[in-house]
């Protein structure tokens, strides 16, 4: 999957709408300390479904919304749109928006979807919020120090099979609830005898 464009509005320090074109090849982001380089990487992770405030360097998910400065009021929402091209050349537009007090909403190519659908889309394409392709500060040390199970998880993300685990967990949970329903049905039938 190729990420081609990123649009941010009200996300962390990006209070004004900003659009970045990501050209093929290696992209570097340079700028003085605190100008928002890491916030950009976090925006990519966030739109891909990241839900851990810790990975967003924040206390809660609403902390990604522009918090205001001495001269500018805070914003009520944050929005990130990512344009990508999948391995079959199909265009993909993924949008995530969070409003204060209302949580997150996702759209893929204009249709409302669940967070899980977005995470699975990226996991199947061997990328996503936890992809080893997104290398943030301290990540290299983390990879070196990772336990074998964590390394396996990284390899699975890279191989594009992370989504299969999510689907397996879903299937197992459906199986458990179906088994419970069957047991209940058997009890009811036994009561009718
Ligand atoms: P460094 O080079 O030091 O790692 P950086 O360029 O990666 O810095 P970031 O860490 O991306 O910079 O950005 C930090 C800036 O983002 C800080 O100025 C911080 O105040 C601002 N910031 C983070 N969250 C918010 C928010 N919710 N509202 C407003 N500003 C925010």
Structural commentary:
The protein has helices at 37-47, 115-124, 139-145, 148-159, 162-192, and strands spanning 2-9, 18-21, 77-85, 91-99, 103-108, 111-113. By secondary structure, the protein is an alpha+beta fold. It has a domain at 2-130: Rossmann fold (3-Layer(aba) Sandwich), CATH 3.40.50. A six-stranded antiparallel sheet has the order 2-1-3-4-5-6. Adenosine-5'-triphosphate binds at residues 12-13, 31, 33-39, 63, 65-67. Adenosine-5'-triphosphate binds next to helix 1. Residues 168-193 form a coiled coil.
List the helices and strands and how they pair.
Blueprint: E1 2-9, E2 18-21, H1 37-47, E3 77-85, E4 91-99, E5 103-108, E6 111-113, H2 115-124, H3 139-145, H4 148-159, H5 162-192
The structure holds adenosine-5'-triphosphate (ATP).
Q: In angstroms, what is the radius of gyration?
A: 20 Å
Mean pLDDT: 87
**What spatial form do the alpha-carbon principal axes imply?**
globular
Structural class computed from helices and strand pairing: alpha+beta
The CATH topology name of the domain at 2-130 reads Rossmann fold
The CATH homologous superfamily name of the domain at 2-130 equals P-loop containing nucleotide triphosphate hydrolases
Largest beta sheet: strand ordering: 2-1-3-4-5-6
Largest sheet: 6 strands, antiparallel
Number of helices: 5
Number of strands: 6
Beta-strand fraction estimate: 15-25%
Helix content: 25-40%
CATH class of the domain at 2-130: Alpha Beta
Task: State the CATH architecture of the domain at 2-130.
Answer: 3-Layer(aba) Sandwich
Protein name: Chromosome partition protein Smc
Binding site for ATP: 32-39
Organism: Pontixanthobacter luteolus
Function: Required for chromosome condensation and partitioning.
């Amino acid at each position: 999957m190729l990420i081609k464009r990123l649009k941010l509005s009200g996300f962390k320090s990006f209070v004004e709408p900003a659009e970045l074109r990501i050209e093929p090849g290696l992209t570097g982001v340079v700028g003085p300390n605190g100008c928002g380089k890491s916030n950009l990487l976090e925006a990519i992770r966030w739109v891909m479904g990241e839900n851990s405030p810790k990975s967003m360097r924040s206390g809660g998910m609403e902390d990604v919304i522009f918090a205001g400065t001495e001269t500018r009021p805070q914003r009520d929402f944050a929005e990130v749109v990512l344009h990508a091209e999948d391995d079959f050349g199909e265009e993909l537009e993924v949008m995530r928006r969070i409003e204060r007090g209302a949580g997150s909403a996702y759209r893929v190519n204009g249709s409302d979807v669940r967070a899980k659908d977005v995470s699975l889309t990226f996991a199947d394409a061997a990328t996503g919020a936890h992809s080893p392709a997104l290398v943030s500060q301290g990540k290299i040390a983390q990879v070196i120090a990772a336990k074998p199970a964590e390394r396996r998880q990284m390899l699975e993300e890279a191989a594009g099979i992370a989504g299969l685990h999510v689907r397996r967990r879903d299937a197992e949970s459906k199986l458990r609830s179906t088994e419970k329903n069957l047991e209940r049905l058997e009890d009811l039938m036994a009561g009718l005898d």
